[in-house]
Amino acid sequence: MKKYLYGVDLGGTSVKLGLFDVEGTVIEKFSIKTDTSNGGNTILKDIAGAILTNMNTHNINKDEVNGIGIGVPGPVSDGIVNRCVNLGWGVVNVKADLEALTNIPVSVSNDANIAGLGELWQGGGAGFRNLVFFTLGTGVGGAVVVDNQIINGVNGAGGELGHAPIPDADEGFMCNCGNSGCLETVASATGIVRVTNKLLADLDDASTLRDRPHLSAKQVFDAAKEGDKIALEAVEYFGKNLGYICSVIAVTNNPEVFVFGGGVSNAGTIITDVVQKYFKKYAFFAVSEVTKFKLATLGNDAGIFGAAFLAKKL
Ligand SMILES: [Zn+2]
């Protein structure tokens, strides 16, 4: 009988792994270092070794494991990864290679998508089947899940929500992707600081945020909660852009819930409140009332949960 799942979140410095039962309860979390030397050619061997050792420890047979799910930091198509700069990888057939090393079925997706799936299965989106997930970190990532299926699109760019253009994109900041005015340039942690610094330069209002050499997004949200005028303006701008993009997404795939994770979301319900405020302003009436806004709950474990969910669906 299939009783167990393995979820693997492969990052540039470490690999997080989780042993789960098929209901989604974590039995053990563990991690290994990501060895990126020699083009990262031992990474999958190291992961297979860690899983097989863990199975030994728990006296688990291969026929009791439904599968291994793995999230990788790069675009994935049919189990094949096409260039992961962080790992030193070119084209790697993760599914075939890891299956050969473990003799267990493997399912592969990218890291932003598995985080969204994790939140859908056991986190802020638990109980729903249609979710849109934003990771608000150094950059902005995303995942679009429709009826429990990740939307990858024609070349894996489905869910790249950080590069959705904001309303005044022509006047926006330059993005790493080469366009200007991507959501990421104003709604990531660095984007929020960038917007706040511009407001501090443009406006004369007194602010506790002035003359801070290392302004952070957390400080901006903390100051907004204290009523700081500039910080409040920065938060409104954040909510306006994110709320606008959510209103466009809402008439595209009509999700039940938007979930917000990543470091920025630690600011709490100020995030969901301000996004929802602008969403209600822009959204079509049929989606305005039914769409829910929630914070992610799994933190850094979202990836292993989502990877385990991939393994469950094998
Ligand atoms: Zn961009």
From TrEMBL:
What GO MF terms are annotated? ATP binding; glucokinase activity
The alphabetized UniProt keywords are:
ATP-binding, Kinase, Nucleotide-binding, Transferase
Name the GO terms of the biological process aspect.
glycolytic process
Q: In which domain of life is the source organism classified?
A: Bacteria
Q: What Gene Ontology terms describe where this protein resides (cellular component)?
A: cytoplasm
Q: Does the keyword Nucleotide-binding apply?
A: yes
Q: What is its EC number?
A: 2.7.1.2
Q: Does the keyword Nucleotide-binding apply?
A: yes
Q: Which Pfam families match?
A: ROK
Q: Which InterPro entries match?
A: ATPase_NBD, ROK, ROK_cs, ROK_glcA
Q: Which NCBIfam families match?
A: ROK_glcA_fam
Q: Which family does it belong to?
A: Belongs to the ROK (NagC/XylR) family.
Instruction: Identify this protein by name.
Output: Glucokinase
